Automatic annotation (TrEMBL), chain A:
<dbReference type="InterPro" id="IPR017911">
    <property type="entry name" value="MacB-like_ATP-bd"/>
</dbReference>
<dbReference type="InterPro" id="IPR015854">
    <property type="entry name" value="ABC_transpr_LolD-like"/>
</dbReference>
<protein>
    <submittedName>
        <fullName>Putative ABC transport system ATP-binding protein</fullName>
    </submittedName>
</protein>
<keyword id="KW-0547">Nucleotide-binding</keyword>
<dbReference type="GO" id="GO:0022857">
    <property type="term" value="F:transmembrane transporter activity"/>
</dbReference>
<dbReference type="GO" id="GO:0016887">
    <property type="term" value="F:ATP hydrolysis activity"/>
</dbReference>
<keyword id="KW-0813">Transport</keyword>
<keyword id="KW-0067">ATP-binding</keyword>
<dbReference type="GO" id="GO:0005524">
    <property type="term" value="F:ATP binding"/>
</dbReference>
From TrEMBL, chain B:
<dbReference type="GO" id="GO:0005886">
    <property type="term" value="C:plasma membrane"/>
</dbReference>
<feature type="transmembrane region" description="Helical">
    <location>
        <begin position="818"/>
        <end position="838"/>
    </location>
</feature>
<dbReference type="InterPro" id="IPR050250">
    <property type="entry name" value="Macrolide_Exporter_MacB"/>
</dbReference>
<feature type="domain" description="ABC3 transporter permease C-terminal">
    <location>
        <begin position="273"/>
        <end position="393"/>
    </location>
</feature>
<keyword id="KW-1003">Cell membrane</keyword>
<keyword id="KW-0472">Membrane</keyword>
<feature type="transmembrane region" description="Helical">
    <location>
        <begin position="491"/>
        <end position="511"/>
    </location>
</feature>
<protein>
    <submittedName>
        <fullName>Putative ABC transport system permease protein</fullName>
    </submittedName>
</protein>
<feature type="transmembrane region" description="Helical">
    <location>
        <begin position="435"/>
        <end position="458"/>
    </location>
</feature>
Length: 256, 855
């Protein structure tokens, strides 16, 4: 059915990020793998968007493209009013530092820095300092006030992910990208992270894009887009976990 | 297991290459030392083998004054009567007196003395085309003002038959006509690079031996059927104890040995460098394998979990090490061959020795060098290998970040020897007699040992401070944290720099203090305004050069005509002029500088008070008197170069100073006791109000024809003396510069390995917005902070040891050369920058995606 998911209820200025006809393949010739196949997607400001799909469907590739971590073969990628596809390496680095936040599945933190230093790292690189009230608010929201001087090796996996979330949120980026942020956590710690992300969107008006293959996690989002074989195959708005699961099922049945 | 090890090796080519590089350098230096010295040595042997062919037995005077410093000692001449005595020895066919002595210094066309490094500049008596000698052109000398010269000298000075040549000998400069040029029966114009001037026999005796009717040696040929050794024993029996009697073969061997003496220095330098490289190689390999093993913790734990036994795991690491060691040694030997070719060429060009071409390759030594390279590598890999085998299987599940081991134990292990070492050094500063040096040496060794073990814990406290100096920005901060991350690794990485800069720091403090001390003593002890002497002679007359007083080349003492001093005395504006004769003597307890002078006059210019001893007696410095329980009026036995062992009455004492030490004879004894009857030093004092420049010019004119001698004022003399130290210091720095290169290699190695280890972190940093330039700055900071740390530690420890040495030496001043130390620190920063070049580029190129990718 439809391969585009442009919500026409909003103008372009309400978009935090967008991909237009993005395609990417790995390798050449017979062994080429098409990771992204002409994908267009809009990410609206202040919304929590989840990207779902089976393993190998291109979720991470899409996220990397949107975040300026990877190049694309064709199409355009925008963060706000900035077109990434023409930026230099230095421009991309500055963009990542100031306008994009990241939470990866694991290895999010520098072992030589304390939790506090990790949180303020992007600001420190940019030689900026955080507003103290905002810093306190963020730290309080992730519940790390008493762990700030600890090194990552002294923190649990869940705490480490919360530090990563705080780091992503602190510079108030245009978008936070999270690639399976709960993938390595037990369900309780995972739920804490997801509640925090949800709260960032609701209270701080933060835009978040989260890659996941977990229906429960996806249910925290305002909108879920589904990928399959590098194509955008479905778009759900404000779904609950059952709806997501059903869609997943339908898609994999349609696949077989 | 072997297959797994080989696969591992290929995967880590680059890193292992870096580690193997130090082994390559070490083996290269060892094999170059062996090949070069063997090649040149066998060249000399083959040249000199022919010299023994025409001599069955050689008789020469036995030197009683062996300075113990090597080189050719002056042998007392053999009286002509010995020739007659030997004619009666049964089996002797012919007996001939020879004159052949080092010390005929020809003046070249540029007006300077022709100097050769190593081989002698002989003056000989002409005996016609006998034995080895073959005339190439002209004829032999027949008149006192005629000479023949060898082809080597003719080449160097571009001399032809019919030209004039000036020669300096025991007598002042004299002019001769060249009537012939000769070579040797082996077709060469020079024996291993020597120069020869052949005079008529009486002239040779006068100029080279300082007397008539004497020879430097007597050659005996054997009758048919009499063996050389039998004849030697008979000759020895006939002459008694006072002579050295050798067969022609023994003579040839010892001449070749003399010719090869300089090879020992070459060998020592190369082997010293090699030792340093291999030592550092051990550290590098230890570090590399430690890091490689740490990276492979998971893999090794898996092997252990799958049932591999400890021995097998140790074995697999050691097999890797053996292969690296073998490869590095082979490359090192190959490079050593190349270096030898170059070195041999350079040395031949310098000495004009024209050795037989081709390399002599000493196979057993090279096998040894190979084994050495492999063993060093294996030893260095042993610790990480054993550690690898102890990895518990559960570790396989954990992240591979290098684990932090507690520093408590190593700190205690280091604190004890460090404290003992410091205590010993402090004790050595107190006046405890000859034990001071033992305490100092022991203290320094213990202190170094302690320092090595304390380096990790010191890195914890020092690195943050240094980091703050280097930079405040976030990338700098990260680099600084990385440097402090693994204290043990940092300690090993900087160890070469610590050792090198420790030596540099110590040497610079000692040298600076010695220079200050020398200048102070020279100015304090010298009352004269001008000094006439050969290059460096005055500076060594008091034995301060470490050995007996000789000219700068260590063999020939430049002298000048005694009349120069008398003429100087007559120059208007001169109030006093004194001549000092210089030589070396031997007491029963060892060698000592000796002088002869009108001591009452000399005292006035050297700020002493002493009276001139009567002929046949000596004045001795009070230190020698008290050290050996002597007093004025006693008899003392000593050997002079010309007269051998004799007893002298001690006529008086004086306080030794910088310019005068040891026995002082009456000037009238010089001709019979000293090698040279001409003065080596002249002191000139100006009258009040005399114009120094005018007088200096007038005195300089007096020695204008003597290219070896010059006139210096007091400051020049002090600088000259200090200059000797600077030369030695510079040579040492050049050698140490090489080890800094290896130190840089060590840092590159560690940095490169760390960067591979931290790929994920680097990717993360790029993801959160570090620019490439930030990455470079981070890595550069890490490298610079580490090298600064090593330099600060080394310079501080070395400087402190240097100060202790200066105090124990009892120098008058302790000078810390702050400027030089700052320069060395600056060089350490440069070294750090250089070391960061490749690793920082690599860090900047880290691909974000592959770095953050997880299975
Ligand atoms: N670096 C790469 N080289 C080659 N193929 C890749 C690379 N990265 C991803 N792919 C392929 O691209 C497709 C999409 O991968 P990815 O975006 O990681 O999927 P997901 O995150 O949905 O599991 C997969 O088929 C994967 O094998
Ligand atoms: Mg993925």
């Amino acid at each position: 059915m439809t391969t585009t998911a442009v919500e026409n209820t909003d103008t372009l200025t309400g978009l935090a990020a967008r991909a237009v006809g993005v395609a990417k393949a790995y390798g050449t010739g017979a062994t080429a793998v098409v990771a992204l196949d002409d994908i267009s997607v809009d990410i609206r400001r202040g919304r929590f968007t989840a990207i779902m799909g089976p393993s190998g469907s291109g979720k991470s590739t899409l996220m990397h493209a949107l975040a300026g971590l990877d190049t694309v073969d064709s199409g355009e990628v925008w963060i706000g009013e900035t077109r990434l596809t023409t930026l230099s390496d230095k421009g991309l680095a500055d963009l990542r530092r100031n306008r994009v936040g990241f939470v990866f599945q694991q290895f999010n933190l520098l072992p030589t820095l304390s939790a506090e230093e990790n949180i303020t790292l992007p600001l420190a690189i940019a030689k900026r300092t955080a507003d103290q009230a905002w810093f306190d608010l963020v730290v309080d929201a992730v519940g790390l006030a008493d762990r700030l001087t600890h090194r990552p090796s002294e923190l649990s996996g869940g705490q480490q992910q919360r530090v990563a979330c705080a780091r992503a949120l602190l510079p108030k980026p245009d978008v936070i990208f999270a690639d399976e942020p709960t993938g390595n956590l037990d369900s309780r710690s995972g739920a804490e992270i997801l509640r925090f992300l949800r709260r960032s969107v609701d209270e701080f008006n933060q835009t978040i894009v989260m890659v996941t293959h977990d229906a429960t996690a996806a249910a925290y989002a305002d909108r879920v887009v589904f990928l399959q074989d590098g194509k955008l195959v479905h778009d759900l708005v404000e779904p609950d976990a059952d709806e997501v699961l059903d869609t997943m099922k339908t898609l994999s049945e349609g696949d077989s | 297991m072997l297959k797994a090890a080989l696969k591992g090796l290929l995967a880590r080519k680059l890193r292992l290459t870096l580690a193997g590089f130090a082994v390559v350098l070490g083996v290269m230096a060892v094999s170059a030392a062996m090949i070069t010295t063997t090649t040149i040595g066998s060249g000399f042997d083959s040249i000199f083998a022919s010299t023994g062919a025409n001599t069955d037995v050689s008789v020469s005077g036995k030197s009683d004054v062996d300075s113990g410093m090597g080189g050719r000692a002056f042998a007392p001449p053999v009286p002509a009567s010995v020739v007659a005595d030997l004619e009666d020895v049964p089996g002797a066919k012919s007996v001939r007196g020879e004159v052949s002595v080092d010390g005929a210094r020809p003046v070249g066309p540029d007006g300077k003395v022709i100097s050769v490094q190593g081989p002698p500049r002989s003056g000989v008596a002409w005996h016609g085309e006998t034995g080895l000698v073959r005339l190439w052109s002209g004829r032999g000398p027949t008149a006192p003002d005629e000479v023949a010269i060898n082809g080597g000298l003719a080449d160097r000075g571009q001399f032809t038959v019919g030209e004039k040549i000036d020669v300096l000998t025991l007598a002042p400069r004299q002019s001769f006509t060249i009537v012939g040029i000769y070579g040797y029966s082996n077709g060469r114009g020079s024996m291993g690079g020597d120069t020869q001037v052949a005079f008529t026999e009486p002239v040779a005796q006068k100029l080279m031996l300082g007397a008539s009717d004497v020879y430097s040696s007597v050659t005996v040929t054997a009758e048919r059927g009499v063996s050389r050794s039998a004849l030697r024993d008979r000759v020895a029996a006939a002459l008694g104890d006072g002579y050295t009697v050798r067969t022609g073969d023994e003579l040839a061997a010892s001449t070749a040995e003399d010719g090869k003496a300089f090879l020992d220095i070459v060998r020592m330098v190369l082997l010293g460098f090699s030792g340093l490289s291999l030592l550092v190689g051990i550290f590098l390999i230890l570090n590399t394998f430690s890091i490689l093993v740490a990276q492979r913790t998971g893999e090794l734990a898996l092997m252990a979990a799958l049932g591999a036994r400890r021995k097998q795991i140790v074995g697999s690491v050691l097999v890797e090490a053996a292969i690296v060691g073998a490869a590095a040694s082979v490359v090192g030997i190959g490079l050593g061959l190349g270096v030898s070719v170059l070195l041999t060429m350079v040395m031949e060009a310098n000495s004009g020795a024209s050795l037989p071409v081709g390399l002599t390759v000493p196979v057993p030594e090279l096998v040894l060098a190979f084994v050495l390279g492999v063993v060093v590598t294996l030893v260095a890999a042993l610790v990480p290998a054993v550690r690898a085998s102890r990895v518990p299987p559960v570790r396989a599940m954990r992240a591979s970040a290098a684990e932090q081991r507690s520093l408590t134990r190593i700190t205690w292990l280091g604190a004890v020897p460090a404290a003992l070492g410091v205590a010993a050094v402090v004790v050595s500063l107190a006046d405890i007699g000859s034990l001071r040096w033992v305490a100092l040496a022991g203290g320094v060794v213990l202190g170094l040992f302690g320092l090595a073990l304390l380096t990790p814990v010191l890195s914890r406290s020092l690195l943050p401070a240094l980091g703050r100096v280097v930079g405040w920005s976030m990338p700098s901060k990260l680099g600084n944290r990385n440097a402090a991350r693994n204290p043990r690794r940092t300690a090993i990485t900087v160890s070469t720099l610590v050792i090198t800069l420790g030596l540099v720091g110590g040497v610079s403090v000692i040298a600076e203090s010695m220079r200050a001390d020398l200048s102070a003593s020279a100015t304090r002890d010298l009352g004269a305004d001008l000094v006439i002497s050969g290059d460096g002679v005055a500076g060594r007359a008091g034995g301060q050069g470490g050995g007996p007083p000789t000219a700068a080349d260590g063999r020939i003492m430049p002298t000048f005509d005694a009349s120069v001093v008398d003429q100087a005395r007559a120059v208007p504006g001169v109030s006093r002029a004194v001549a000092q004769y210089v030589d070396t003597v031997r007491f029963e307890w060892g060698a000592s500088p000796a002088a002869a002078a009108d001591l009452s006059q000399l005292s006035a210019v050297l700020n002493l008070s002493a009276r001139t001893p009567a002929p046949g007696s000596v004045a001795l410095d009070s230190a020698t008197l008290s050290d050996h329980g002597l007093k004025v009026g006693d008899m003392v036995r000593l050997a002079t170069q010309r007269a051998g062992w004799q007893e002298f009455r001690i006529a008086g004492g004086y306080e030794a100073n910088y310019l005068l030490r040891g026995p002082v004879f009456n000037p009238s004894d010089v001709a019979s006791l000293f090698v040279s009857a001409a003065p080596a030093i002249g002191y000139v004092q100006l009258a009040d109000g005399a114009d120094a420049a005018t007088v200096t010019r007038a005195v300089s004119r007096l020695v204008a024809d003597n290219p070896e001698v010059s006139v210096q004022d007091r400051t020049q003399l002090a600088d000259d003396a200090a200059g000797q130290i600077s030369i030695a210091e510079t040579m040492l720095y050049v050698l140490l510069g090489l080890s800094v290169v290896i130190g840089i290699l060590g840092i590159i190695n560690t940095m490169a390995l760390s960067i591979v280890e931290r790929t994920r972190e680097l990717g993360l940093l790029r993801a959160v917005g570090m620019r490439r330039s930030h990455m470079v700055r981070m890595v550069v900071t890490e490298s610079v902070v580490m090298s600064l740390f090593g330099a600060v530690l080394g310079l501080a420890a070395g400087g402190a040891a240097g100060v202790a040495v200066v105090r124990v030496l009892g120098l008058s001043a302790t000078e810390i050369p702050w400027v030089s130390l700052a320069v060395f620190l600056g060089l350490a920063v440069v070294a750090g920058l250089l070391a960061a070049l490749a690793p920082s580029t690599r860090a900047a190129r880290v691909n974000v995606l592959s770095a953050i990718a997880y299975e």
